Amino acid sequence: MSDERIRRAIDRALDEVGESQGIEIERSPNAVLLGDGMLDSLGLLTFAASLEESLRRTFGAPVSVIDLLAEEPEHWTTETLADRISELVGTHVRG
């Protein structure tokens, strides 16, 4: 299960994309991020940069969101991304 701080960071990053592109971004745990999802290439870069910076500030852990999303690009939802980041940050913080 993911940390609530990670979910908030994802929501903030999605808000930033929405504001920069002037669009409404769906905010649900099952919202698909890529493929038939909500982020185009510019949105993806904006989202990744914003989320990476937020994670670095919050946890002191570098996380490459682009690398994560490249693992299984058609399967990422906000919930699955939050869970995976939680695993990585937890490992980094404990390790």
Describe what you observe in this structure.
The protein has 95 residues and is an all-alpha fold. The protein has a single domain (4-94), classed as Orthogonal Bundle (Non-ribosomal Peptide Synthetase Peptidyl Carrier Protein, Chain A). 64% of the residues lie in helices and 0% in strands. It contains 4 helices and no strands. The protein has helices at residues 4-21, 41-59, 65-71, 78-94. The longest helix has 19 residues, at 41-59. It is globular and about 30 Å long.
Look at the helices and sheets and give the structural class: mainly alpha
Tell me about the largest β-sheet: none
- Which CATH first-tier class would you pick? Mainly Alpha
| Overall number of strands | 0
CA(first)-CA(last) distance = 19 Å
Please tell me the overall pLDDT: 85
Q: Rg from C-alpha positions?
A: 12 Å
Gross CATH architecture: Orthogonal Bundle
* Order of secondary-structure elements: HHHH
Indicate the percent of residues in helices.
55-70%
Q: How much of the sequence is in beta strands? A: under 5%
Comma- or semicolon-separated keywords:
95 residues, Non-ribosomal Peptide Synthetase Peptidyl Carrier Protein, Chain A, mainly alpha, 64% helix, 0% strand
